[in-house]
Structure formats: C-alpha cells, structure tokens
Design goal:
This protein is of the alpha+beta class. Helices cover about 50% and strands about 10% of the residues. The strands form four sheets. A five-stranded mixed sheet has the order 2-3-4-9-6. It is globular. The structure holds protoporphyrin IX containing FE. Protoporphyrin IX containing FE (HEM) binds next to helix 13 and helix 19. Protoporphyrin IX containing FE binds next to helix 13 and helix 19.
C-alpha cells in the first residue's frame, strides 16, 4: 500500500513542504484515508467533511484513497484554476456508479462526446424555448395549488409538494407528456428514490465501487430491477414520440395530440431532429433524456423545499416577495419577461442556493499529471470542489449562516469574487439547466405566494444536513400554508 502511495504522492511545484499549501488529513488507519467513511451515515459523512474542512482553516485538504490522492478545494480563490481549466473536464469513479442509470448522458460523458452533445443540447435551453416552457410551469403550479387546497390539513411537508411539482414539470418539458397521462408514474417516482438509496450504499462501501464485487455481494439484482423500471418508463415515451415525429415529418399528422391540443416543444424534439440528421442514436437519446430527468428533478425540488422553508422563517423577505408580485396581473397571463423582472425573488432563490446548494460538491479526475495551485497531482488523482464550504466563506459572505437575499442585489455583487457562490458550478461544465431551473422555481413560488401565507414550523436548528446524491436533511421540513382570501 505504502509503495503504491509513494508512487502516487502529491508534490509542490517549488519543492516547498506540502503543509504550506494544503492541510494533510491524517488517516484513521494505516491505509491512509481509505476507511475514513466506513460506517458513517449520510449525516455523519456530511459532518465528517465539514469537520475536515473546518480543521483545514481555509487551506485545501489532501487525503489519500487507494492509489488515488484526493485534493479538496474549499475556497473561491483556490477554485479559479479548476474552473478555468480546459483539461479538468472528466468525471471520477464515483460518478461512474451512475453509469448504468444515465449512460453517456451529458453529466457523465467526457472528451469529444461531451463536447458534441453539449453543443447539440445548448439550443434546447435557449430563451425562446424557455418561453414555451413557462406555460407548462404555470399549469403545474395551478395543479399544485388545487392539490394543496384539497388537502385536509394546512400543514405540509415541503419535499412532498416540491418533488411532485418538479418531476411533473421536467417530464412534460423534457418529453412533452403529462405525468398523469402515463401509467407507471407513481412507480417511477418511488423507484428513483430506491436507486438513490442503493447508490448511497455503494458510496459508503468502497468495495462496491468495483462492479464485480457489487454484483456478487451488493444489491445488484434489486438495482437492475429498479433501473429496468425507469429505463422502460422513459423508453416507452421516447418510442411513442419517435413515431409521432416520423408521422409529422411525413405530413401524416397534425401538430396536435389525441385530445386536439397543440403539441408543445419538448427537449426530446431537439434530440429527435438530431437523430434524423444522424448526429445521435437511440441509446444516446435515452441517455440524455434520463440525464435531464435525473438532473432536473431532485436539484430543483430540493432548492424549492429550502426556499419555502426560508420564506416561512423570514416573514420580512416573504412580504418583500409578495410586494414585488402584487402588480404583476393575472397569473395565467404572465410571460417569461414578467418572471425575469422578479429580482427580489431571484435573490431569495440565489441566497437559498448559497446556503443549501442542491449539489454540495463536484469532482473531476486528472486524466494526466496535473499542475494546479502550485501542486503537482499525479494522473488519476481526484479533485473535489466543495460548493457548500465555498458558498459559506465569511470572507465573501459575513455572517455566512444568515439568510440575507440582499447579498445578491447588483450593488452588493459587483466587487465579489466571481466564484464566491457557485451553486450551478462554473466554467465549461457548468449547469446547462440553470436558467430553466430559476424560471421554473420563480413560477411556482409566485403561485404559492399569491395563494398562501407561508408560516414556519420547522426551524433551521431542528435540521441535520446530509449527503445524498444531492444535499438532503435527515428530518422532514414542515410549514403551514394559510390560504389568502381573494
Ligand atoms: C436548482 C437547480 C439546479 C442546481 C443547483 C444544479 C446544479 C448543477 C451543478 C452543480 C452541476 C455540475 C455538476 C458536476 O460538475 O458534476 C450541474 C450540471 C448539470 N445540470 Fe444542473 N442544476 C440544477 C438544475 C438543473 C436542471 C433543471 C437541469 C435540466 C433540465 C439540469 C441539467 C444539468 C446537466 C445536463 C448537467 C451536466 C452539464 C455538463 O456536464 O455539461 N440542471 N447542475
């Protein structure tokens, strides 16, 4: 072990002691940091990482896993070279644990395939396309309010409502079908959660990083069954849409569905058009669709849940949001331009993402020996960027745990470090869906604020944050929704 580690040791470029540049995390056993995570719960892992990053006092953290040094960045200043790099674009091993689920979709792919797909998919998130999606977001928001109105209690668990809204919205915008119209939608929602649970079990047990061992001793059969369910779900819709697309090309059908409604644009349409040009095959389409649905669902629903909680806990911010939307006009006639004007609400969303970034850290693999921040990392090292810690650096955000949307007022951001808050990541592999996500969240928040006063139940002190595929809480978050008389 030590021989291998010595071969893979990190060095400084100028030969100075490593301790000047990084905090070297002492391992819990003679096998470096290999077993540091063993037996940790998701909340325990979250605490363990915060504890390491606090102990480093702003320095990056260096740890050693089997023949893989891990360099963890916790400050905006140290993230500059990372985000500006044109080399650090490959995803490391633990992302590959999602490979069976997402294939070579945009999140996991690398090199030419990623570049080609990124270019191909960028138009699917263009302003004009977002304009089309606004109607879907409004319809789903109205449906959500109807469901909330019919509930026997005014106490709600925020994830429950945010998840349903986000999944319905992403499926309709990505695939062009309403979740209600499809059989198996409840099963799909549940299965996504079960896939996440098995993914986490693999994360905590490094032996299960190896596919062979996972197949022999892990929950592989169960995992395969879950994957079949979600893949079949998206595959069926893709097949149906493909047929519709073919008929449309032949001029055999109108651009209307079976109920006579005009078909709206969906991201899948971009992919089908590219398939017709020979730029992507059926498997590629499935991978990209599964990636949209996965990336666009939990991330947005988590941010929405924390936003609802923050507004409940900060009535003054809620009042400002309501004042901002008071002169907007009829909800059903609002346009993307109207939502773009909601600057205070946008600050609320950004401040929520600063405090609770749905993706708390990102990682890259060094495909070759890499020089970064005065260090030489051997090939195959991993670099993590801890968005959670960067976003809470008191140097850029004094009183960092406090919820203060005004931090994002234009006059307060001009002099701030460009990577001081990076919830959507930055650089070439930043989030392709960030404008989509902000618009979607604004629409549903406007609808909730027009209909309900949001009152607090759960407090921040009641919550323990934990690592899932995305940031989660061990406890449920509850708020009270008091209907506003019209
Ligand atoms: C609040 C909502 C969201 C947050 C906080 C968020 C955050 C992120 C972050 C941090 C990354 C970088 C991941 C990495 O480097 O490993 C990312 C990538 C990505 N996101 Fe988002 N995301 C959100 C919503 C969405 C939505 C709604 C979609 C699609 C509709 C989406 C699609 C993607 C895709 C496809 C990538 C991979 C991009 C690439 O590697 O080229 N995201 N997101």
């Amino acid at each position: 072990y030590y021989v291998l580690c010595i071969c893979k040791r990190v060095k400084t470029e100028d030969g100075s002691p490593l301790g000047n540049k990084v905090y070297e995390l002492p391992g819990t056993t003679i096998f470096g940091n290999t077993f540091d995570f063993k037996d940790l719960t998701p909340a325990g892992l979250f605490k363990f990482v915060r504890d390491c990053n606090n102990r480093s006092q702003g320095k990056s953290v260096l740890s050693y896993y089997p023949v893989t040094p891990l360099y963890s960045i916790v400050k905006a200043e140290d993230a500059v070279e990372f985000f500006q790099s044109t080399e650090l674009l490959q995803k490391p091993i633990f992302y590959q644990l999602l490979q069976d689920f997402l294939g070579d979709g945009l999140l996991l792919s690398s090199d030419r395939k990623w570049m080609h797909r990124r270019k191909m998919l960028t138009p699917a998130y263009h302003f004009n396309i977002l304009r089309e999606f606004t109607t879907t977001f409004k319809e789903e928001s109205i449906r959500l309010v109807k469901r909330l109105d019919s509930m026997p209690t005014d106490v709600v668990e925020v994830h429950e409502i945010s998840k349903e809204f986000a999944l319905n919205s992403i499926i309709e915008t990505a695939l062009g079908v309403k979740l209600d119209d499809i059989t198996g939608s409840a099963e799909y929602r549940q299965t996504i959660n079960q896939i996440e649970d098995i993914f986490l079990e693999r994360i905590f047990n490094m032996l299960f990083y190896f596919n062979g061992l996972f197949r022999l001793f892990g929950k592989y059969e169960k995992y395969k069954r879950h994957l079949n369910i979600v893949h079949e779900f998206s595959n069926n819709i893709i097949q149906k849409k493909k047929e519709e697309y073919r008929q449309k090309q032949k001029g055999a059908t109108e651009d209307v569905d079976e109920f006579g409604k005009k078909n709206r644009y969906a991201m899948l349409d971009t992919l089908l058009a590219e398939e017709a040009k020979g730029n992507i095959d059926h498997q590629g389409i499935c991978d990209e669709v599964n990636t949209f649905m996965f990336e666009g669902f939990d991330t947005t629903s988590t941010c929405l849940a924390f936003t609802i909680m923050n507004l409940a806990l900060h009535p003054e911010a809620q009042a400002k949001c309501r004042e901002e939307i008071s002169n907007l006009g009829e909800f059903t006639s609002l346009t993307v331009m109207d939502f773009n004007k909601l600057m205070y609400l946008e600050c609320v969303l950004k401040e929520t993402l600063r405090l609770y970034p749905s993706v708390p850290f990102i990682s890259r693999k060094c495909s070759t020996e890499t020089r970064i921040n005065g260090l030489i990392l051997p090939a195959n090292s991993q670099i993590d960027v801890h968005i959670f810690d960067i976003n809470r650096d008191p140097k850029h955000f004094p009183d960092p745990s406090a919820f203060k949307p005004e931090r994002y007022f234009p006059e307060n951001t001009v002099k701030r470090h460009p990577f001081a808050s990076v919830a959507f990541s930055a650089g070439a592999r930043n989030c392709i869906g960030q404008k989509f996500a902000l618009l979607e969240m604004k629409v549903v928040m406007v609808s909730l604020l027009l209909n309900y006063e949001i009152l607090p139940i759960t407090k921040v002190e009641d919550l323990n944050l934990e690592y899932g595929i995305i940031l989660r809480t061990s406890e449920k978050i509850h708020v009270k929704l008091r209907k506003i008389a019209k």
